[in-house]
Structures are given as C-alpha cells and as structure tokens.
Specification:
Length: 144
Amino acid sequence: MLPPELTEAIEEDHRALDALLRGDAEPKKKMFSHRPDVSLANPLGPPVRGWDKVETTLERVASQVREGQAQRFERISEYATEGLAYVLEIEHAPGIKVGDSEESKPFSLRATTVWRRETDGWKIAHRHADPITAPRPLESIFES
C-alpha cells in the first residue's frame, strides 16, 4: 500500500501529464526532482540525466503537442518504502494533436516512475515511458 502523500503526488502527476499533453510543461516540471541525478527516458529521444536536460526535454515535448488528454491509468505494479517507490502503469490517451495537424491520434505508453521522498515531498527521480504495451516478436528489438 502506498503512503497517502505519495498517492496524492501520483494523482497530481496524472493531472500534470494532462497539462503536458495540452502543451503546458510547467505542472509536469514541478513533479520532477531538481537534483543532479534525476533522469528521464521518454519515447521521443534518448535518455537524459540532470535537471537542466529533463527540463529541456519536457519543454520540447510540450512544444510539439496540443489538445491531448491522459484519460486512463492502468496500474500494473507499485511498491514503496519510507523514501523510495515505483509505479508501473499503462497510460492511455484518447487523442493528441501533434504540430500543425488537426488529426487527433490515440496512444498508450508503458511508464515506470521512480519516486523519491525529498524535503518538499515526493518527487520523480526517474521516469521511463515507451509505446510497448502489447507482446511483440523478438525480431522487433533487433537494430537494422
């Protein structure tokens, strides 16, 4: 069972993802640790480490998307200690517009978020998200 403060932080992070998908990175940036070891691996680029790079990555994502909504979070697994926790979820978005396109496209991401208790509450220490949400053939991992 997750501590109530962490549950609240996760719910706030879900709302922050909603804002990010509408083009506003500020709420999501507040969810992340600002310590030098913070890291982010999202599906739009290579993994980054350090607050300055995480911040830049979040702003880049927000600049590319609009009118999105994170609709449903399917919790797969969770675990917490006094100071560290993880949550594995599938994030479902019914649609998002990218760039100048008027076409809205749905997507889902498999996301693992590592949370750390800091002096100002629970913060994201690491997040990894990718579009792999269903079984794939082994050949799909080979580099071409």
